Amino acid sequence: MNIPFENAPLYHYILEVLAFFIGVRLYYFLKRKNNIISDNNRLWILLGAMIGALLGSRIIAAFETPQELPQLTLLKFYQAKTVAGGFFGGLFGVELIKKIIGEKKASGDLYVYPILVALIIGRIGCFGMGITEPTFGLETSFFTGMDLGDGKLRHPVALYEIFFCFILLFLFYSIRKIDLVNGDRFKLFMLFYFLYRFLVEFIKPNNSLIFGLSIINIISIFIFVYYYKFIFRFINSKILFTTYSQNS
Predict the structure, then answer these.
(1) d(Cα 36, Cα 182) in Å, to the nearest integer?
(2) Are 134 and 157 in contact, with CB atoms under 8 Å apart?
């Protein structure tokens, strides 16, 4: 197997479109089964998520290479994007819209499975791009090291994320029958995903923004602080321990 794949940009584009399409269809399928928010408000929330994700993914991506900010053009700004920035911007886009329309119910749980499935599909395309896509890792002698197109053994970060998403799918399936507070599943997803992104940044070639931390490290810390009340409540609830005991 040669990486990047032959016609990798085309496959990457197709898989991005496929990830979006399947994610949206899965969302609407789940919405029919469990929708506690009116359709009108759902549309506004989805609009807030999309605009927030569009802006967040570009703004955070721009700060991934702070040394290039003075040369940043509108075209480069639009072309650069990062999933973590999309989630970060989407979160605050949703919160802003909900305040405007007066919606107080948590809306994120329905997005967990669609996001994970879309991530898995999309990261396959990222992996196929090799070192031409900024989802590769540093050189390594670890057994997972792969030649991603430059003749060096590197951490295949895109594959790590695919594997991690499968773990999260299994986790959320395992706790599907547990009576959680509405919105807790989405909060769990955000915390686990940004914990992964915080850690994986240290095996990626990235640029320090402040105190040796990249912009992804910084927004990950912000997410941990944002959800600090939930973190303490979740730890005290011992949900994962209870789930493990029931499945043993």
Answers:
(1) 10
(2) no
Q: What confidence tens digit (pLDDT) does each residue in 173-191 have?
A: 988 888 888 889 999 999 9
For residue 71 the two structure tokens come to: 């040369």
d(CA 113, CA 24): 10
Please give the distance of CA 58 from its chain centroid, rounded to a whole number. 14
Question: Is 50 exposed, middle or buried, given 0-12, 13-18 or 19+ CB atoms closer than 10 A?
Answer: middle
SS3 177: coil
| DSSP bridge partners of 121 | none
Q: CB count, 10 Å around CB of 131?
A: 16
Check: CB of residue 90 under 8 Å from CB of residue 56. Answer: yes
For 75, residues 6+ apart whose C-beta sits below 8 A from its C-beta are: none
One-letter amino acid at 35 equals N
Q: What is the pTM of this model?
A: 0.90
